[in-house]
Amino acid sequence: MTSARGGSRLWLWVVSSAVILLVSCVLGLMIGPAGPQWWRIPLELLDRIPFVNIDSGIAARDWTIVWQIRAPRVVLAAIVGATLSLSGASFQGVFRNPLVDPYLLGVAAGAGLGATLVFALGGSRPTDWLIDPLPLVSFGGGMAAVFFTYMVGTSFGKTRSNISLVLAGVAVTSLATAIQTFVLQRNNDVVRQVYAWILGRLSSATWGDVRLVLPYVVVSTVVLLMHRRLLDVLRVGDDEALALGTNIRRVRLIVVLAATLGTASVVAVSGLIGFVGIIVPHAVRLIVGASYRKVLPLSVLLGGAFLVLVDIPSRVLSDPAEIPIGVVTAFFGAPFFLLLLRTRETSS
Amino acid sequence: MRSVLAHRWLAVDEYSNYPQEAVDLGTKLSGYEPNIEAISGYTPDLVIASYDPGSLVQQLGELGVPVYLADAVTTIDAAYEQIENIGLLTGHAQEATDLTAQMKAQIDEAVAGVTLPAEPLSYYHELDNTLYSVTSNTFIGSVYSLFGLRNIADNVEAGNDYPQLSAEVIVSADPDLIFLADTKCCGESKATVSARDGWGSLKAVANGNIVELDDDIPSRWGPRIVDFVIAIRDAIAALLVNS
Amino acid sequence: MTVLGFCELRVTYGDHVAVESYNDILHSGEWVCVIGPNGAGKSSVLRAAAGLIDYTGSVAVDQKEIPATSARWRAQHIAFVPQSPLIPHDMTVEEYVLLGRNPYIPYFGVESASDREIVVDVLHSLDLEGFERRKLATLSGGEIQRLVIARALAQQAPVLLLDEPTSALDIGHQQHALELVDRLRRERGLTVVSAMHDLTLAGMYADRLILMHQVVAWRKEARPKC
Q: What is the ipTM metric for this complex?
């Protein structure tokens, strides 16, 4: 039963990745520039399990630091990492292009432009609105950016070139950034507000941020994971996938919508964190192969673990100051991307 | 950046929003990327800039327009000096000297107005809601130092005088006073700070020692420094009364 | 019973005409070979029937016009073997042939045990047993070509379109693959249209030959009316 073996092997990977994620989160909770001694924290966590009684010796105010400040940050990092990795893998599948990620496609820049317009044109946003327009408009901006990138990137003849899509993303990102700069110059009273939003606030994450993104991220994750088999069908190309009975336009539209929704919503709370969507899915491919049935679920788990781990140096290396997490991911991600570009060039 | 002719302001850049007369000029010259042509179009006798973003001084110099560079200061004394220099250049030397003397007197009075406790009080100055702050090496920090306050951001590595702090560092430092210089930019207030996860237990929150500042006042080294100093004095006085 | 009908099929790419006034009627169990030099329009006839390109005129499977059908319905009724398939190198043989079951798997579903059994059967019938877990990168050109045919057979569609199906196979495997298609045609009434350049092979299996020359079809018998 080869098939059953393949299935159980996937479960083995899923379970071990979930364990890695869990261990990363516990590590993330243990390490920080303030708070109780690190070794007491797992004891306290065990103590919180019903019927387990361990005296961790942590004072209430120290526990506040761990639970109210560090924990939401760890959870948010896991959510952001998982979403960016899953969106990256999905974009790579749907465009059949290993070089794209939500940032290279211009999603983040488009979402940033959308947010800028809300701040600049919306004046003082009423805080008692039923739905905050900010995530919705930045989602719209992200969608528009992907749309333009795709239109431009695929307009160079029938044969879609991997590089042309990346270049189109660069162009769309520049255009969105230019429009944003123009709008900001005319509305300089909102500059700091906009930049604080774009640069993210993972460092000051709250449980409120977690609650804000969770609904969007859950929808995006469920929809994308349900497309894992269809993304494998797309691997044989548009013509063959169509001949095999796949409505490629619908699949592409839904996957792009879901991946953009996920990206735009995490951008709203974490700011610009590049390369996660490229590093994690490719590392997963190296381990388990390119089947999206494995790549998507494992990218969720390991992407979450990755960002939780990367966030640790970003908060302790220059204690008590912060190193922006985007700087840390770019430090690892940019060389990885160049390596990838190089291997693709030589193999094709 | 301000351009003056004898006693008359001709133009200001887009960020110069005080006093109201500056805003009323309605001249939105670019502050970050000054356009030399636009500035010289006003044919000013003097241009005052807080920094040279490129070749402003050189290019205006070639056009025969002198520029006074009022660089960002790190001490109040340097601010006095700039005010007096500008007075001299604009033909208001006496008024400028009177102004700085008055500022000194008001600040001295404010500082003398509180009896500081033996144990120095600690403070956290918030620049924006992503928890950027300042160290004592900055101008803002030097003003707090007048009162002998201890800055919780001071142990960052040298050279990083505008550090982004970890929330857990702030909470564990538990400052006596919190000053918000992000009420305009980011809409922060006593209420929003108190509502932050994990901040409820802070001394400053529990005792109400959170000061809502106008974002512009601490970061601009003009005559309104006095307002900043008085705000700090009032905050300390309120803290001491309650304790 | 008419399974596949072409009526005044015309295919153009911009200003270039690829196929002009193509008529044909295929019955269940019939094998028609379209022969002719490269660029004569053979592939365009097959691709129009597979629903991959726009055309004018009419192409109908089971009396249904191709553009009016869903991709899923088409894939259940027409299996298409492209001339140069895109091969994802690190896919396994089993994963690849399972793609042929795609039209039967619900949008959000996964393959069933019976889908897997069909894959096992198809691999067995094409001498690809034991290859299940091999990566496509490790297969020879001939093995790949049989694999693509295996994927098409896994679709269990009544119409099979083969675009140059044997160009990379050695003589033995050519015979074997075509024998299998021929047997399915006899046993299950499979209707086959193949584009081929090897006249000997075409003559061995086809009931009828159609020669495409400069976008126009020529044949021995009378041009069918529609």
A: 0.91
